[in-house]
Design brief:
Distance between the termini: 67 Å
Number of domains: 2
Shape: elongated
Strand content: 35-45%
Largest sheet: 6 strands, mixed
Number of strands: 13
Order of helices and strands: HEEEEEEEEEEEEE
């Protein structure tokens, strides 16, 4: 009789060990599907500029995000280099350079886009926070924004860019094919504060 009880207990333990992990996995999948949005990504200031020349259009958007000191830069490229495939970008943001950034997403009308974030956003999953899954056109580069001023009293955001693919370059045809250059003043109208 004791051996039958031990065997039944053994079977019960095996069944519990098999069913508990699958229940946990199903619950964690449900939680991952119900991610809570992150307010840190909400822009509180936006500056946009479009460069249009005979070779196409480049649209640049700089967002000052709700999380203090954080930015997002979106580059939309629709120039003649799109026929070469993926386009690469030289980018200088207030003296911090990236010499080789590949635009990530091909949009249906042959636009190519990349969105560079200054931090990796988080989301709420159940009672905890985790890293947000980035979309196909997003990239995190926190060092790129090291010299970018968040508040107006610290200066402007200066950006230079040029695009290249397979040995061909595309610059601002309105400016002797030099780098695309733009300076954005800060749209935030509040005084600096200590956030830490």
């Amino acid at each position: 009789m004791k051996s039958i009880l031990k065997f039944a207990l053994f079977i019960a333990v095996i069944l519990l060990l098999v069913t508990i992990p699958s229940g946990i996995a199903a619950t964690s999948d449900d939680i991952a599907d119900m991610e809570m949005p992150c307010d840190d990504l909400e822009p509180i200031g936006v500056q946009t500029h479009s460069f249009v020349d005979r070779d196409g259009e480049v649209k640049l958007t700089v967002e000052w995000l709700r999380r203090p000191g954080e930015f997002a830069v979106t580059i939309d490229y629709y120039g003649y280099l799109t026929q070469e495939g993926r386009v690469n970008c030289y980018l200088d943001l207030n003296g911090t350079r990236r010499e080789f950034i590949t635009l990530r997403e091909n949009i249906s009308d042959r636009h190519q886009r990349i969105r560079i974030l200054s931090f990796h956003p988080t989301v709420s999953r159940g009672g905890s926070r985790g890293l947000k899954k980035l979309t196909s056109d997003e990239l995190v580069d926190y060092l790129l924004f090291t010299n970018a001023p968040y508040y107006p009293q610290f200066g402007t955001v200066n950006i230079e860019m040029k695009f290249f693919s397979h040995g061909r370059w595309d610059g601002d045809d309105n400016n002797n094919n030099e780098n695309y250059k733009i300076s954005f003043p800060c749209p935030i109208k509040v005084q600096a504060e200590d956030h830490f």
